[in-house]
Design a protein that fits this description.
Number of strands of chain A: 8
Shape of chain B: globular
CATH class of the largest domain in chain B: Alpha Beta
Oligomer: heterodimer
Distance between the termini of chain A: 50 Å
CATH architecture of the largest domain in chain A: Up-down Bundle
Number of helices of chain A: 22
Radius of gyration of chain A: 21 Å
CATH topology of the largest domain in chain B: Uridine Diphospho-n-acetylenolpyruvylglucosamine Reductase, domain 3
Number of helices of chain B: 15
Strand content of chain A: 5-15%
CATH class of the largest domain in chain A: Mainly Alpha
Number of domains of chain A: 3
Largest sheet of chain B: 8 strands, antiparallel
Distance between the termini of chain B: 24 Å
Structural class of chain B: alpha+beta
Largest sheet of chain A: 4 strands, parallel
Radius of gyration of chain B: 22 Å
Strand content of chain B: 15-25%
Bound molecules: flavin-adenine dinucleotide, iron/sulfur cluster
Largest interface: A-B, 30 and 37 residues
């Protein structure tokens, strides 16, 4: 059985990476290759490392492990690749393979995974963040990362002054069928770090529906990304049970919605869960996707200049590009930044594992934000938001960072 | 083997972070985009990434003094194994040399270092209304140094020629570290042998190119893209020939057969009529819209003489891009059809294009292999792709026979082994058939003159 699983995992990797013809199209787009331009950083490099690993050309050594960990899972390479090689999935599977082989994921990821798996711990963390410090994960929330949350109240005070006010946005035209049961999926990152944004999301949702608030588990992305696939599958099952009654499940975290939409794929060979998983994934909607579909109009139009950092898991992950921009255009003066869809270097815990590289990537992002002259950079993922907060701080107050719920 | 002492010397020249020798890094510089198997890996002993000509010269001096082979490398997008360090030694990666030294507008010339990506060079010139035409399909990621070393061609070759038609002068570091300058900005130049064109296409076997002077032309004011669908390959080719004979010279005329077309259709989720046997993508350019319209009309009329089933004239930039995306995605879409693809690059007299395709079809039937064919129909350069699964017993042998026969047929119709990808490792075996003993001996004599110790990119071309 165990061997079976191992074989399946390797087969998954093989079927992806053997399709790479090493053309090099992905070299210029990988944010990591831009920071550290040696072959092993690029998608081409990593896919071929994986291929050599499977075919016996490379051993499972620590530097091979760091190479497969050195990936933002941002999918910029997948997007440009003529053969659509899923480097991100291959890397996740190789990480899993390493974890299985070594009898489990590294202590660090296990601790993080274990914490995020536990509802009480996540809640505790959101209360005090003490737990994180206690288990040595305080760097997940390093200094300056306990973001000085710029609240909607402060935002309105600054930008919605009567002089600039173009009047309240037109009344929302939502007409949801009363039968549609909408539930809110609360991501761990949002819960722990941006409780104000969560309140804003719920406030918005309440204007168009009666969102059920479910005490859900983590979406499992940190687990599946770092060799804790069993945990991921377990939590997915529990979440499926918890949301069995909902027709639509909305999340204001792009990574959660992206991951949950992909759950179906992970269960496609499991006869007992296959159908439920497919049904579950089909119910998932990203917040802006849902709001636009529901005809939501921003509560207020302000005179703030806004720009959008597109989370990888939203744009490339779910193909949701227009919706957030549409909402932002109605909420203020929208300016598109160049490279809006380039990864910010946050990527789960990547910014903790590789602070320098991550900072280099973020610096490019910051410059692009500054070039737009925007006062607020808006995004829709807690890890991106942490990064945007760091960029805002570095910019010396040229702009601030906010979750989209706080702006629309 | 390179001793630690020598490594230290090289590290002192380029900086320790630019001299790599971990097993993983050596592996990363062991392959290119050719079908040479990934394993066993052709690892170099040392990866060296210089930043300046002076550093290159220093590294070459050390290599020369210690008989260390050196294989230059750009982006490793080469299709024939050119940058694969067959003999180990140093993989000399030039991708950090990315300075644009000068854009000389009055003389319409640009001087760049070899690591500049072709597309960046193109864009820089375009901003000033200047045009660098050679556009290999790999231009978004390949380096200009690699383009010069392979004398890369592109889709615009039919009207504007290939890389060598634009190279005016080079700075080259020779095997012993001597810095040589060839050519220059003078448009007329018959002072001594034309070393510039000798180094262009030399595949890294004669010297390391460290600076390149390129000629530019004024950017055509307007361009447009057409897509033509035909019920047969012959009719597609005839259309292109008739166009050229009538003086309608497209900036590009790309032809793809049904196998390739359906492969792109699958990867790009397009719906393409299964009765379409050939698709031609044409780019036209002119000084004004009227000029474009006139050419489009002429092409439309000619195509209809040859039973064209669909003429699509792009109405927007986006539509142009969509059409080009079909052509650009072709190579990889075809590659994804089977576990292994042997992509070839042969060139025949333009008139022989349909005949060559017919001969390839026969080879395909004879050996029971799927062979997709596409190429630059405007200039007779075609890329047959043999699709196969080498794990099937006997398949490898059939593939090799088929490839041998393709080359033989190409030579038989008056063509040659390589239109643009070079010889590298993958076509070495056929070089004598193409050039004859005397031809190969002449190449070897040139090689000996520049690289008596045989250190530069050993194991390539013959
Ligand atoms: C998808 C795809 C499409 C392609 N389409 C085309 C096409 O349309 N037309 C075409 O001509 N080619 C094409 N190619 C082939 C390839 O991109 C070209 O040969 C390109 O010029 C190689 O550039 P590079 O920087 O990747 O060089 P590399 O592959 O790194 O090196 C190529 C050769 O040049 C030598 N070299 C590199 N830099 C230097 C230098 N500074 N000094 C001396 N020698 C050097 C190397 O030793 C090697 O022999 C394609 C490849 C791919 C993957
Ligand atoms: S673009 Fe795709 S096929 Fe090309 S090297 Fe990158 S992963 Fe491989
Ligand atoms: S997913 Fe992103 S970081 Fe990872 S290889 Fe692809 S482009 Fe690079």
């Amino acid at each position: 059985m165990k061997d079976d699983k191992k074989e399946k995992l390797l087969q998954e990797v093989r079927s992806i990476v053997s399709q790479c013809d090493r053309c090099g199209s992905c070299l210029p787009v990988c944010p990591l290759f831009r920071e550290k331009d040696v072959e092993a950083s690029s998608a081409r490099g990593k896919n071929n490392i994986a291929r050599a690993l499977i075919q016996g050309g490379l051993e499972l050594t620590p530097d091979v492990l760091s190479a497969v960990n050195f990936c933002l899972l941002c999918r910029a390479c997948v997007d440009i690749c003529p053969s659509k090689i899923k480097t991100d999935e291959a890397m996740m599977s190789v990480r899993q393979h390493f974890a299985d082989k070594q009898g489990g994921a590294s202590i660090k990821y296990k601790a993080m995974g274990g914490m995020l798996k536990s509802r009480p711990l996540v809640k505790l963390a959101s209360g005090s963040l003490k737990v994180l410090r206690k288990i040595g994960l305080n760097r997940l929330i390093p200094g300056g990362m306990i973001p000085d949350q710029y609240t909607r109240k402060q935002f309105l005070a600054a930008f919605a002054g009567p002089a600039a006010l173009a009047g309240p946005a037109p009344a929302s035209t939502v007409s949801l069928s009363p039968e549609t049961k909408v539930a809110y999926f609360q991501g761990c990152g949002m819960r722990m770090m941006f409780p104000d944004a969560v309140s804003d999301t719920l406030a918005i949702l309440q204007t168009v529906t009666k969102p059920a608030v479910v005490d859900n588990l983590c979406c499992g992305l940190p687990h599946v990304a770092h060799g804790l696939r069993e945990e991921f599958l377990e939590m997915a099952k529990e979440n499926m049970r918890l949301f069995a009654n909902a027709d639509v499940i909305v999340s204001d975290c792009a990574s959660c919605s992206g991951t949950l939409k992909h759950i179906a794929g992970y269960f496609k060979d499991d006869p007992a869960w296959k159908d439920r998983a497919a049904e579950f994934s089909a119910k998932i909607m990203d917040l802006t996707e849902y709001l636009v579909k529901a005809g939501y109009q921003p509560r207020l139009r302000t005179n703030a200049t806004l720009t959008f950092h597109e989370p990888c898991h939203l744009g490339r992950g779910q193909g949701i590009k227009n919706q957030p921009r549409e909402l932002l255009k109605a909420a203020g003066n929208y300016v598109e930044m160049s490279g809006a869809d380039t990864c910010c270097g946050g990527a789960g815990s990547f910014h903790i594992d590789y602070p320098d590289i991550s900072a280099g990537i973020l610096d490019k992002k910051r410059k692009n934000i500054e070039k737009t002259g925007a006062q607020i950079v808006v995004t829709e993922c807690p890890v991106c938001l942490v990064q945007m907060n760091k960029a805002a701080e570095k910019s010396g107050g040229k702009f601030r960072a906010m979750h989209i719920s706080q702006v629309i | 083997m390179i001793t630690n002492e020598i490594k230290e010397k090289i590290r002192a020249v380029v900086g320790p972070e630019n001299a790599l020798d971990s097993n993983l890094d050596l592996f990363g510089y062991s392959y290119d985009s050719s079908f040479i198997p990934l394993l066993p890996a052709n690892k170099p002993d040392f990866v060296v990434r210089p930043l300046t000509t002076a550093e290159v010269a220093e590294v070459m001096k050390i290599a020369y003094a210690n008989d260390i082979p050196v294989t230059p490398r750009g982006a490793a997008s080469g299709r024939t194994g050119g940058s694969v360090p067959l003999a180990g030694g140093i993989a000399l990666s030039l991708d950090r040399m990315t300075n644009v030294i000068e854009l000389d507008e009055p003389n319409m010339m640009i001087t760049v270092e070899p690591g500049v990506r072709t597309i960046d060079l193109y864009n820089l010139c375009a901003e000033k209304g200047l045009f660098y035409p050679p556009d290999p399909a790999s231009w978004k990621f390949s380096t200009i140094g690699g383009n010069v070393a392979e004398n890369a061609g592109g889709m615009r070759a039919v009207k504007y020629g290939v890389t060598t038609n634009y190279v005016m002068g080079l700075e080259v570091v020779l095997a012993d570290g001597t810095i040589l300058n060839t050519g220059g900005k003078a448009l007329k130049n018959v002072t001594g042998y034309n070393l510039t064109s000798l180094f262009t296409g030399s595949e890294g076997t004669l010297g390391i190119i460290t600076k390149i002077i390129l000629r530019l032309i004024p950017m055509p004011k307007v361009r447009n893209t057409l897509q033509l669908m035909f019920p047969s390959l012959d009719e597609a080719c005839s259309t292109i020939h008739k166009m050229l004979q009538s003086g309608v010279v497209p900036a590009a005329a790309e032809l793809m057969d049904k196998i390739g077309l359906q492969a792109v259709a699958r990867t790009r989720k397009l719906d393409i009529d299964p009765n379409t046997e050939a698709c031609v993508v044409i780019e036209i350019d002119a000084d004004d819209e009227a000029g474009l319209d006139k050419q489009a009309q002429q092409i439309d009329v000619i195509a209809h003489e040859f039973n064209v089933t669909e003429v699509r004239i792009a109405k927007s930039f986006q539509e142009s891009e969509d059409i080009w995306a079909i052509r650009r995605g072709l190579s990889s879409a075809v590659g994804a059809m089977a576990p292994t693809r042997f992509g070839e690059d042969i060139s025949v007299p333009r008139s022989e294009f349909p005949e060559m395709v017919r001969r390839i079809r026969k080879i395909s039937e004879k050996h029971n292999l799927v062979i997709a064919v596409y190429g630059h129909a405007g200039d007779g350069n075609l890329h047959p792709s043999v699709l196969c699964d080498l794990t099937v017993p006997g398949e490898e042998e059939r593939v090799h026979k088929a490839v041998d026969e393709i080359f033989a047929e190409a030579l038989a119709v008056g063509g040659t082994l390589s239109g643009e990808h070079g010889i590298g490792i993958t076509k070495r075996a056929y070089i004598t058939d193409a050039l004859g003993e005397a031809g190969v001996n002449a190449l070897k004599a040139v090689k000996r003159a520049f690289d008596p110790k045989g250190l530069l990119n050993p194991g390539k071309i013959w």
